[in-house]
Structure formats: structure tokens, C-alpha cells
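Postdoc handover notes: sequence design on the structure in folder B. Input C-alpha cells:
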């Protein structure tokens, strides 16, 4: 079955489901159905890695001939390129990353959420229901994402959970992306560190012996997948945030265990925390590009599964970058940091935290006075994401494009002096940083590559050459490309 046969192509503001988005991508040449039968390993991995080499134009890939899984369908690379993100946001293919960043920033807080309700009978996700003899291996075409993973992983689920003490509070209902390892037909583990919303809820539920249930949504509205990992506040709804950012409605229904879920998800797995139970989890090839260790992780028992007819299992390739993981969450890591900084420091021009979930970030800022950029950096470390992820921070002048690494490297080369480097050691850090001496601890490195101002020594530096820029240069560059293309014919 081809992607185009699933649904007619739709405009971005009418997308309700993964199927709609695949049809849109197909119409723009950004989704393909793999024409040959494949082995779950290593064929799927190899195809996805090859597609991921082109992070601007790489397509989504649908596999529907997977050996050992007759009749099962698998989609990968759905958010694997910036052109796919551009189409989701209503832009043409090839839209520059900087423009996508400012588009997302511009949507922040400018629209109201439009959340609609469908009854369980109306919701496509409830077309099929499994409550007995649950076997995840029968439902999902599982495979190891990376060669030395410790088992089968579900890497792109949106997991819904309610605050144990305020289960009726919609805003405190969390939706996040967490790695999930399958341990048995109805047994899984879910990794969430204490700084995550889910981690907080698990700790509270176990401390006070409160039943804790989750709904694992697979194959979701593409905006949900894109924005669920955005570090919004604990009492801010990710459903509402995704609708606001898309400026479009999102339809919800209720899972069998009482969670709000997307009505058009492909598959929803309902599960309950096994209080006090921990299972060995890992290793797993994670976003820093290295395998995580093996640790004891909370275990969940699967209690039911709902799915659409002929469901699509959507998964992700994650590992040493560049991967779909980097494309999926990079801009939505950058935008909240920018918004937090901009509210306090209007001089902040842009933030690029695309790399390894923001382990390295670049902030462009107009220096207000000597040492100002370093203060901005320290504020960034106090943002929800900066606390655990902003390991290396580079500060550049506002006229430097932080998404243009040639410009960033120029600033590093000619602006930085020894006194412009700060190291804050023995700080909290995401526990899967492979460079850490102790898991969960690490350093924050700040490099101030901005122009010094008085009374800093060096403020009277040589005048910098400013090459011509603007519309005339853009026009000439386009003409050169046209002439070059003509010469090549």
C-alpha cells in the first residue's frame, strides 16, 4: 500500500493525523513507500540512516513489507528533515532553518488552543480494542533501533499521565516523549529522570502509594510529536500548546484508563506503574551518540491497547547525529530558551540549541555593557532546559547568525580570549552525557565570543571588515546560481 493511497493530501491547517501528514509529505515528494521487503534489522536502520544524511530534504519512509511482520506498517523519518517541518508549518520545502526558528518564535502565545472532543465511539483510535491476552509483539513491528541496544525500544511515543494529587487538573496532565523498552508481551519500562514532569509524578505516586496510569500514544498528529518535547511549564498543557503553535484544532478523546488522548492516534497502549518495581533497562543508543548504561527503571504493566484499522507504528532513529531526533526537537529546544531570555533581555537576537538536544547552544546577543553576555548566559542556565542540558554555551554578537556555523566559528576565532571562558563544574546535568565523570553531574562551559566593551581591555580592537549584505547581494547570488546552472546544461 502506498502512502498516497492512505488519505488525500491535506493543507497543514487541516491535518488531524499521521496519515494526513504522510499524504501531505507524499504530495510534495517528501514521503516514500520503501519498494522492497526488508528485515527489521539491519535493513530498517540502514535505510533510515541513509535518508537522514540529508537533513534538509530527507523523506519520511513507510515500510509495509517487513519480514516476520506480515501486514504490519512502520513509518520512520516523519520529522527527519527541515523540509518536512517546513511543510508542517505551511512553508515551502527548503525554507532556511533560521526562518523556521523565527516562525516558531512568532507563534508563541499568539493563538488560543482549539481542543475538540470526540466520544470513544467516534474516535478512530478506538476502532479496535485489546483487553485480554495482550501481546505487544503481535501489535508492533518491533526491532532494535541501534545494533547494541539492550532490547526493543519504542522511541517516539507521546506518553500521557496525570498529576497523582490533582488528576482532574487538565493543565497538569503531562504529555512527553520518553524512551520505552519492551520487556515482555505486556511488560515495559519507561525512563524519566526526576527533572522531567513524568519523573516528578512517578516519585509522588510511589511516595504516597497512589495508583499511576499512563497512555502511550503512537503514530500521532505531527504537531504533537514535534511539540510534546518542548519544555513548557508543569502546569501548561502540551495538547493546548501544540494546538496554539499550529493555530489549528486538535481532537481529543479519552483512553480506557482515563487519560486524554489524541482521537486520531494510530495506537494507544494503556499501562499502570508497578509500585516499587524496577527492571534493568538499556543499553540504548541515545542522542549524545553513545550507548547509555544499564540502570534500574520503573516498570509498567500494559492493561489494554486501542488501535486504528491497519495501524502504522511510527518510530524514530536516534544515535550519533545528525538524526531525526535532532530535527524533531532542535527548533523546539531553541525557541523556549529564546522566549525566556527575550522577556528579560530584549538584546537577545536568536538562540540555536539544535545540537544534541541543546548540549551545545549558541546565543546571539547585543552587548549592553561589559560582561553583559556572560550574565545572559547565566540566565540561560536557569531556564528549565538550561538547567540540565546547556552544557556548552557560546555567546556571539547580535549580527552573527547563530545558525550559520561559519559565522560562529569566525567569532570564536577572533573574539575569544582566556578571560572570556567560564567553567561551572560539579553542576546538575542530564545523566546520559558520555563525558560526565559522575552520571547526573557535569559542567557548564560559557564562551563569550562577543565584542568587548569598555572598561574591558581590548574594547578598542581593530575595525572589523563588514562585507556588503542585503537584497542586492541576495540578487547577485541568485543570478550567479542561475548562470552556473546554465553553464552546466
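Designed sequence:
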Amino acid at each position: 500500500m502506498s502512502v498516497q493511497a492512505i488519505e488525500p493530501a491535506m493543507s497543514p491547517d487541516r491535518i488531524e493525523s499521521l496519515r494526513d501528514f504522510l499524504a501531505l509529505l507524499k504530495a510534495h515528494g517528501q514521503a516514500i513507500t520503501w519498494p522492497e521487503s526488508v528485515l527489521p534489522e539491519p535493513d530498517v536502520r540502514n535505510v533510515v540512516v541513509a535518508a537522514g544524511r540529508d537533513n534538509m530534504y530527507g523523506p519520511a519512509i513507510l515500510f509495509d513489507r517487513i519480514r516476520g511482520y506480515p501486514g504490519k506498517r512502520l513509518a520512520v523519518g516523519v520529522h527527519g528533515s527541515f523540509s518536512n517541518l517546513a511543510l508542517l508549518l505551511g512553508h515551502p520545502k527548503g525554507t532556511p532553518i533560521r526562518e523556521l526558528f523565527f516562525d516558531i518564535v512568532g507563534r508563541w502565545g499568539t493563538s488560543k488552543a482549539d481542543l475538540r472532543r470526540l466520544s470513544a465511539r467516534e474516535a478512530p483510535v478506538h476502532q479496535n480494542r485489546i483487553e485480554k491476552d495482550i501481546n505487544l509483539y503481535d501489535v508492533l513491528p518491533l526491532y532494535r533501533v541501534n545494533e547494541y541496544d539492550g532490547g526493543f525500544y519504542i522511541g517516539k511515543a507521546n506518553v500521557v499521565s496525570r498529576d497523582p494529587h490533582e488528576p482532574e487538573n487538565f493543565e497538569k496532565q503531562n504529555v512527553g516523549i520518553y524512551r520505552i523498552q519492551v520487556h515482555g508481551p505486556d511488560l515495559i519500562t519507561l525512563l524519566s529522570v526526576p527533572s522531567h514532569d513524568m519523573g516528578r509524578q512517578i516519585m509522588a505516586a510511589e511516595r504516597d502509594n497512589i495508583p499511576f496510569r499512563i497512555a502511550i500514544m503512537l503514530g500521532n498528529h505531527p504537531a504533537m510529536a514535534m511539540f510534546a518535547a518542548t519544555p513548557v511549564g508543569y502546569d501548561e498543557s502540551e495538547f493546548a500548546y501544540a494546538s496554539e503553535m499550529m493555530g489549528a484544532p486538535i481532537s481529543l478523546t479519552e483512553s480506557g484508563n482515563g487519560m486524554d488522548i489524541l482521537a486520531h492516534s494510530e495506537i494507544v497502549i494503556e499501562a499502570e506503574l508497578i509500585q516499587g518495581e524496577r527492571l534493568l533497562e538499556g543499553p540504548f543508543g541515545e542522542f549524545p551518540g553513545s550507548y547509555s548504561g544499564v540502570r534500574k527503571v520503573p516498570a509498567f504493566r500494559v492493561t489494554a491497547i486501542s488501535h486504528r484499522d491497519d495501524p502504522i507504528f511510527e518510530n524514530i532513529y536516534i544515535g550519533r547525529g545528525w538524526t531525526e531526533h535532532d530535527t524533531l526537537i532542535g527548533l523546539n529546544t531553541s525557541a523556549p530558551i529564546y522566549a525566556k531570555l527575550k522577556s528579560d533581555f530584549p538584546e537577545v537576537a536568536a538562540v540555536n540549541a539544535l545540537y544534541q538536544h541543546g548540549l551545545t547552544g549558541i546565543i546571539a546577543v547585543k552587548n549592553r555593557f561589559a560582561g553583559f553576555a556572560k550574565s545572559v548566559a547565566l540566565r540561560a542556565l536557569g531556564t528549565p532546559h538550561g538547567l540540565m542540558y546547556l552544557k556548552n554555551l557560546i555567546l556571539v554578537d547580535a549580527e552573527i547568525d547563530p545558525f550559520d556555523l561559519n559565522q560562529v566559528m569566525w567569532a570564536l576565532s577572533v573574539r575569544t580570549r582566556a578571560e572570556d571562558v567560564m567553567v561551572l563544574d560539579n553542576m546538575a546535568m542530564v545523566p546520559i552525557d558520555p563525558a560526565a565523570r559522575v552520571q547526573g553531574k557535569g559542567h557548564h562551559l560559557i564562551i563569550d565570543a562577543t565584542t568587548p566593551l569598555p572598561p574591558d581591555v581590548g574594547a578598542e580592537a581593530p575595525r572589523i571588515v563588514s562585507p556588503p549584505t542585503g537584497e542586492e547581494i541576495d540578487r547577485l547570488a541568485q543570478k550567479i546560481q542561475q548562470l552556473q546552472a546554465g553553464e552546466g546544461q
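Context for whoever picks this up: Confidence is low (pLDDT under 50) at residues 1-9. Don't rerun without checking with the PI first.
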